[in-house]
Each structure stands twice: as structure tokens, then as C-alpha cells.
Design brief:
The chain is 63% helix and 0% strand. With 234 residues, the chain is an all-alpha fold.
């Protein structure tokens, strides 16, 4: 049976996908970077995956380094925004740390194509990826500050900084879990509880933190406006 030839590449991505052209390029690049590696993936391969011409890709990104940088920052930016909001909310440190670990783990657990695996690429240490590393350092420092408040010590001390590094890497365990199975909510809770234990929290404190986290989630859900019901048909 003869397979039909593919049509010519389009100038623009498929509008029927429900995703913006930029998002389609990022989705395709994430899949290819994880499947076959960053070095082995060309912008032509990304364009072919989307179904566009290579020249159209350059309208959105200067090259695959820019695409990788955006993917990396997308994986950490939501957690960083959550971290800032939690510190502004002035919650008890155990509740804030639990909520941050949960949000961070859930972000990494649901990121498309497990793009957290891209953290391990040697290219990420290059200067062109400084913005991603700066975002991740800011997130790590937030972990260190919340942990120090809970443990009652100095986040800028060697021990405090080391604890922040341990906590962020503990949460990133979910990236490696995804290589063999799909992490669930129980995995995220286990990670959040482990983060508190690293800071010396007892079981009563951990239970209180989980209860406070549930209250924060309920408050966020309640704050989402309910769309109006459609009126009666004429």
C-alpha cells in the first residue's frame, strides 16, 4: 500500500490545534530535545514536527538556543511566582514551605514531555542560559529562607544555603520518577513532607502544614470567578 506524500510545509502552524504558533514550536522542540537530545535536534527538525517552513520558525525564535532557554524558564517560572506570592502572604514557614514544594513538584510532574530532564544538559551551563540559572537560584534561595525560618537559623549561612540546595533537588526527584511512571498527588505530598522533615519538623507540624496548604488551595479555587450561565434561547 502506497503511503500518501506529505504536503508542503506551511508558512504558519496549524490554527486548529488550539495552541499559538509559539506554543506549537515549544511543544515540538520539547519532545525532540527529550527524545533525541538537544545537539541532535535541528531547527529544521523542529519546523518539520510542527509542519511549518524553517524560515517561519525564525519569526518566533532566533534559534534553538532561544527555544531551549524558554523551555527551561517555563519549567521554573510558575514555581518562582508562587514562591514570591507565598513570602508576600506571610504564612507560617511550615505552611509556606509545604505549599511551595507542592506547587513546584506539581509543575515539574505535569510539564510537557518531562522537560525538567533538560536541566541535565551540559549546554545549560553556558552563559547564554544565565537567565534560567538566575531564576533557579532565586527559587533555591526562597527554599533556603523558608527552611531557615522553620529551623530557626540563618539562611545565608553555609548550612542554610546547603539546605536550600537540598530542598530544591529533593523536589526535582519528580523529574526522575517520570522516567518510569506518572507521578501522582501522593508523590507530591510525600516530597513536600520530606522537605519539612529535612528542616526538623515533627509530624504534628507537618500535619498542620498540609491542612494549611489545603486551605490555601480552597481559597484559590473560590477566588476563580464562575462564568455566567447562558441565557435562555430565543
Amino acid at each position: 500500500m502506497t503511503r500518501p506524500r506529505p504536503g508542503r510545509p506551511r508558512h504558519a502552524p496549524d490554527e486548529g490545534s488550539g495552541m499559538s504558533p509559539r506554543a506549537q514550536i515549544l511543544e515540538a522542540a520539547a519532545a525532540l530535545f527529550v527524545e533525541q537530545g538537544f545537539s541532535a535536534t535541528s531547527t529544521r527538525a523542529i519546523a518539520d514536527r510542527v509542519g511549518i517552513r524553517q524560515a517561519s520558525l525564525y519569526y518566533h525564535f532566533a534559534g534553538k538556543d532561544d527555544i531551549l532557554l524558554e523551555l527551561l524558564r517555563t519549567s521554573v517560572r510558575p514555581s518562582l511566582e508562587t514562591a514570591r506570592a507565598l513570602e508576600d502572604a506571610e504564612l507560617p514557614p511550615e505552611a509556606a514551605l509545604y505549599a511551595l514544594a507542592m506547587a513546584d513538584a506539581q509543575t515539574l510532574a505535569t510539564a510537557p514531555h518531562n522537560i525538567g530532564m533538560l536541566y541535565l544538559l551540559p549546554e545549560v551551563q553556558l552563559e547564554r542560559y544565565d537567565l534560567f540559572r538566575e531564576d533557579r537560584v532565586e527559587l533555591q534561595e526562597t527554599y533556603a529562607r523558608l527552611a531557615a525560618q522553620l529551623a530557626g537559623d540563618d539562611p545565608t549561612s553555609a548550612a542554610g544555603a546547603r539546605r536550600g540546595e537540598i530542598l530544591i533537588q529533593l523536589v526535582e526527584v519528580v523529574i526522575h520518577q517520570r522516567r518510569t511512571r506518572v507521578p501522582c498527588a501522593s508523590d507530591c505530598h510525600a516530597i513536600a513532607e520530606a522537605c519539612l522533615r529535612v528542616c526538623g519538623a515533627d509530624e504534628q507540624t507537618i500535619t498542620a502544614a498540609r491542612t494549611a496548604w489545603a486551605g490555601v488551595v480552597r481559597h484559590e479555587v473560590a477566588a476563580v470567578p464562575t462564568p455566567p450561565r447562558p441565557g435562555p434561547q430565543a
